[in-house]
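User: I'm new to structure prediction. If I give you an amino acid sequence, what do you actually give back? Let's try with this one:
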Amino acid sequence: MDVHFLRVCLDLENLLQRLGSGMALKEHHQEFVRLDTTPGSEWVSCDCISEFGSSAKYHAGAKTEIPLDRALNPLCQRGKTLRLGPENHVAARYVGLRVPQPERLVERPQCIHFDPVVANQIDAAEHGDDHGHSESSISARRVLTPQTGSPLPCYRLLMLRQIGFLLAVLVLFVCPSFAKEKYQQPGPIHLDRAGEKWAEQTLRRLSTEEKVGQLFVVWVRAKFLNVEAPEYLQLRDDIRKYHPGGLTMTVPWDPPFLYRSQPYEAAELLNRLQQDSKLPLLIAADFERGVTMRLHGATEFPHAMAFGAASKPEYANAFGRITAQEARAIGVHWNFFPDADVNSNPANPIINTRSFGEDPQQVGDLVDAYIRGARANGMMTTVKHFPGHGDTATDSHLGVAQVTGNLARLKAVELPPFQRAIEAGVDSVMVAHVSIPALDPDPNHVATTSPQIVTGLLKNQLGFKGIVITDALDMAGLTRLYAAHIGRAAVDAFKAGNDVLLIPADLDASYRAMLEAVRTGEIPQTHLDASVLKILKAKASLNLHKTRLVNIEALSTVVGKPENLALGQQIADDSITLVRDNGKLLPLKSSGTATATLPYQRVEGVRDIMVVIVFSDDMRTEAGRRLEREIRERVPDANVTYVDPRVAGAMADDVLKAVDNAQSVIAAVYEVPVPGKVMKGTNGATNSVGLSDASGTLLQKVLDHAAEKTAVLAMGNPYLAQDFPAVQNYLCTFSNATVSEVSVVKALFGEIAIRGHLPVSIPNIAQRGAGIERPAQIARGGTRHAYSQVN
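Assistant: Good question. You get back a string of structure tokens that encode the predicted 3D arrangement of the chain. For your 791 residues, that looks like this:
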């Protein structure tokens, strides 16, 4: 007789969960679960089959075994428990989970077709494994054997029972109490009892290999990737092989170029990777200046030090709120910010403008405000770089940095902002690769691998109970200590008290080293379980155990809201700080706006009345482009020149000739901390956030020729002026962000009030708190720019 497939629509995730498969449908796939049993067996094998068209592919790695009673329990009819007869040699029961054709191109189907088939002695060679079509039929001599052992003689009775069962299951799964939200709905971070229970139950089900994998967080570079692209397949395979607990989202980087992606590309890729993972992934990112640091279209903020100059905690709170909302919209749950380092060393090449300032109290206030704003909007926060990276002169990306202060100084300066962060409820603390002899004199230890610092100080003395995460394990500040056994760095960091191992230099070596340490007992199982449980609870606090996908269609309503963009610009405006003003140059005079012309027909005349020199590390980058456009809107014939260390010497004569003829000169210096930056100087290669010798020499010559009529703009590093004491007009933006470029031009032309105050001291120039305030004022004879505003 023929047994036809019956069809009904059910919620996919609930059905898979009740079948015990633990599998999720992957994008563009058909999936069904095959339940097999052998004669007399009390267990049933559960295979996940992905289909493309009529071809079927088994995922052996997804195969699990579950008790037969558990598999048949959802298929009970009229309260009687059914069992499979011993005659079933090939396939006992197929439960087809089939995606309708129109829904295959959406990012996740809402429902599936459920096709139960009961058969025995199926000829697999003849019928194959494709049971995904409701029009198909198969032959079976005996369709079901109840507990009595008597076959059901009537095909109609079988069909009635099957229909009754399917209707019952349909009612069950559409019941609101079993409904699940399809997309994440971010809210304040909160771990309820149900989340705790999920974390505890999940921990018990994990193998040692899976537990070790949960400790690792690895890179993912957000961009468009085809499902068959080698880079995507490698990501997917790594997720399945190493079971990482999370991913750190960044974008492609080919120094000095950072290739920012689009929010839609990032969200789609993260959704896909979430579906590829057995457990939900914690997605982290380094959004120190907001989501726009990695993706186009989001709200742009200046560097942290600009918030110190504006000195308004409410700005930091809004910064956290907006970044959280935009990050969660694209599928990022965890930000590696705020930076609690107190930048007390002007020579610090890697913290600098990433810090809120040099005053522990102000840094603590802004750290506290940011954390509260972010957590209230569903984003985990990370305070870094414990126990303080502000008083160093070495970039830990390149070598071992050392904090030389004694214990009293550490308690007075470095630690207070971290204590404030803990009081504010920060979710995680990132430990730095810095050597601190006052806390651990072992020369082979950095803070990351020091039990005295991570467990003794952070956990025991400061009482931090959250997640402790390493700084990136691929940084030279750590790898130089483990060149002979790179995987050992992960083991020592974990033994020191870190819970999460971030971006290992060699994932495979680190994973295997951790497994070996657990298996030999070097790392106790209780220690491993405690850290994994923290990670699982963090996922549950974000409701990732309920739903892990984001709604891509909602991006356009959350990311880049006009009111948020305006606030980012306002913060940059309020941070502009006038450090020196000779009273003879500012405000600059506008000569009108550029005349609109047809495309490709605009011919710009250039004169030397206003000369603009843009100094940067590489003139091919975007540094100064927005600044130039803003200046040309006000002075269309301004002479703008770009200079970097490679051409500074060759261009010096032409630049100085233009400077001599000019009525006003703007020297915009773009220098911000860049990880791993190396400069060649007279004393060899160094890592610095200052101007190179060639560019610095040219700037000094410009000041020698025309200091009185030159405004120097520190588009980032505020300490620049200590190397050029002859500067007479000096403005700090503390950032090279586009909003800061717009703000400083408005300040130069008197279109906004200047209110900022230095959050750091500049040796031999000015003390912290200095700042010349100016009301908005238009130069006599000038015209107000059409797009400016008076504050």
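You can read the tokens as a compact description of the fold. Here is one thing that stands out. The longest helix spans residues 155-174.
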